[in-house]
Input
Amino acid sequence: MSNNKEVSVLGLGSMGLAIAQLYLAQGYKVTLWNRTADKAGALVAKGAVLARSAAEALRASRVAVMCVYDYRAADAIFATEGAAAALDGRLLVQLTTGSPKDAREAEAFAHRHGAAYVEGAIQAAPDQMGRPDTPLLVSGAQAAFDEAEPLLKALAGGIVYLGEKASAAAAMDLATLSSIYGTMLGFLHGARIAEHEGFDVAEFGRIVAGIMPTFAAFLQHEGSVIQSGDFTVSQSPMRISVEATQRILQTAQETGINTEFPVFAAGLFKRADAAGLGGEELAALIKLLRQ
Ligand SMILES: NC(=O)c1ccc[n+]([C@@H]2O[C@H](COP(=O)([O-])OP(=O)(O)OC[C@H]3O[C@@H](n4cnc5c(N)ncnc54)[C@H](OP(=O)(O)O)[C@@H]3O)[C@@H](O)[C@H]2O)c1
Output
C-alpha cells in the first residue's frame, strides 16, 4: 500500500492543474511534469516539485496520475526518453478520457512495462473536482484499485468502481455521453419549436429542468427493464412514443423548421412498431438496435 501521501501528476491542462492543486491542498508531496513546463509555476510556488522529464516524474512516486488531452498525447509522453522504462514498479492512474480500446491498450502497455494500472473517467469540470459528490468512474484490477482508492478519493467523492476490466470506465463514460448527446439534440430541436412559435427559450429550459428528476428515474427504470429482458409494459407502452415522435416530425414539416432530429427519432420508432414492438415497454426499441 502506498499511504505515504506522495504522487506524481503528469499533464497540467485545466484538469491536471485542478488535480495537482487538490493533492497539494491535502498535504501530498507532489511531483509535476507537463510538456509546457511554465504551467507548473504557481504549483511549484506552493511546494510542488517540477520534474525535468516525464521519466523523472514517473520515478519520483509509486503512483503517477496522468491527465492529458487524449491517448495520442499519453502515447507521445511514454515515447519520450526513459518514460516507458520508468513505469516499472509503478501504479499508473490514467485519467485521460479515451475509448474502451484505448484503455485496454494502455493497460496492456503498462503491464508490459511492469506497472499496475487503473483507468478513470472524470465526469465533472475542473472546478467541480474534490467534492464529496464529484463523479468518477474507475476500473482495473482490484488490487490496483484498492491501492489507488485513497488518491482517487482525494479528487472525487463519488467514485464508482466498475470492476476489473480496464475498459469499463471508458465504456460507461461513452455510454453516459451518448445519453447526454441524445438529450441535447432533442433539447435543441425543442428550442427550435419554442423559438419558432415565439416563446421564451429560457422558459423552455426551465420546464425541461423541472421534469429531469422524473425523467432520470424513468431512464433508470428502462435500464432495469433492458437488463431483466422482460419488456412487458410496466411504465410506458412504446406506441405512445411512436405517436409522439410522429407528431414532432409532422409539426416540423408543417412549420418548415429543421426535420433532421424528428426524422431520425420517428423513423426508429416507426420501424420498431412495424416489427411488432408497439405493445411492449418503450425500452424494447433496443431490440431494433441489436439487429
Ligand atoms: N476540462 C474538463 O472539463 C474535463 C472534464 C472531464 C474530463 N476531462 C478530460 O481530462 C483530460 C484533460 O483535459 P484538460 O481539460 O485538462 O485539457 P487541456 O486543458 O486541453 O490540457 C491538455 C493537456 O494535454 C497535454 N498534451 C496535449 N497534447 C500533448 C502531447 N502531444 N504531448 C504531451 N502532452 C500533451 C497538454 O500539454 P501542454 O500544456 O504542453 O499543451 C496539457 O497538459 C482530457 O482527456 C479530458 O477529456 C476534462
Observations:
- The domain at 6-164 is CATH 3.40.50.720 (Rossmann fold).
- The first helix runs from residue 14 to 25.
- The chain has two domains: 6-164, 200-289.
